[in-house]
């Protein structure tokens, strides 16, 4: 993230410099998403998810997601994509970026029927992005860190001390980030199962959504060790269950068949086989 405004500026100037950046618009998008999800959850738990307010806040949440990921993609590629560049190479570069993938899937959810579970992965990401921006930008802008006593800005060990609130937020992010990314991976897999169930019950448009989301989840599996780990843990749990002597052999055979099909599908859709090398490491979704 970009550094906060210089501490020697007046408060009004620090706030002005902060509020006129694309990064602040990105923060507002994540913050708006959290507010919209909170308001939608109130409608959902009161069995009023079809009301006008619920529909508005649901769409607003995904509109905010589109805005935030659009800003990240714009900042990342405005200087990298040159006029006259090879269209195929540019498309592959864009589609292999996790932020582009989340931008595209948020557009899908924005124009699709309501699926409340689809909000949750974006919500988890927004919690951490809002927390991180608050710690690194908002708090220093309103309460600049003080120089440690007996030191100068250029002296060894002269780092400025952060506020207790900033330290608390930093500890929260550090302590719960991995667990939260594991939760996101589990939610994304659960969402795929939810779409599969809708497809089997012939819900309108479910097969199309399932196909699109399967492509997205396959890309996530390629790039996220959290998703790989979540699939591995799920497979291990099912393996343990089907080894129960009370489970009919046909069930065990069926599960082995499903695993075999899954492995073949993953291998056949590994883009590294067709691009001549391993994909570059991607930044985490923002």
Automatic annotation (TrEMBL):
Stretches the record annotates as Disordered: 144-163
Topology versus the membrane: Multi-pass membrane protein
Superkingdom of this protein's organism: Eukaryota
Skewed-composition ranges (Polar residues): 149-163
GO cellular component: endoplasmic reticulum; membrane
Entry's family note: Belongs to the PER33/POM33 family.
Protein's name in the database: Nucleoporin POM33
Organismal lineage: Eukaryota, Fungi, Dikarya, Ascomycota, Pezizomycotina
């Amino acid at each position: 993230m970009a550094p906060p405004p210089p501490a020697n500026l007046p408060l009004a100037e620090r706030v002005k410099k902060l509020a006129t950046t694309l990064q602040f618009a990105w923060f507002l998008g994540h913050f708006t998403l959290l507010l919209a999800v909170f308001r939608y959850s109130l409608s959902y738990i009161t069995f009023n998810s079809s009301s006008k307010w619920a529909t508005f806040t649901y769409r607003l949440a995904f509109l905010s997601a589109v805005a935030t990921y659009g800003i990240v993609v714009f900042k990342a590629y405005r200087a990298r994509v040159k006029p006259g560049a090879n269209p195929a190479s540019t498309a592959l570069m864009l589609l292999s970026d996790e932020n582009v993938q989340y931008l595209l899937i948020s557009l899908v959810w924005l124009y699709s029927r309501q699926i409340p579970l689809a909000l949750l992965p974006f919500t988890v990401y927004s919690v951490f992005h809002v927390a991180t921006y608050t710690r690194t930008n908002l708090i220093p802008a309103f309460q600049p860190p003080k120089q440690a006593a007996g030191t100068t800005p250029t002296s060894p060990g002269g780092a400025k001390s952060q506020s207790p609130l900033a330290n608390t937020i930093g500890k929260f992010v550090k302590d719960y980030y991995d667990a939260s990314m594991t939760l996101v991976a589990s939610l994304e897999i659960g969402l795929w199962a939810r779409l599969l169930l809708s497809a089997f019950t012939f819900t309108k448009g479910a097969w199309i959504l399932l196909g699109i989301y399967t492509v997205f989840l396959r890309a996530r599996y390629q790039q996220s060790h959290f998703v790989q780990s979540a699939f591995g843990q799920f497979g291990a749990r099912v393996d343990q269950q089907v080894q129960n002597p009370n489970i009919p052999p046909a069930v065990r055979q069926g599960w082995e068949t499903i695993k075999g099909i899954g492995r073949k599908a993953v291998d056949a859709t590994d883009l590294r086989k067709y691009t001549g090398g391993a994909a570059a490491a991607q930044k985490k979704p923002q």
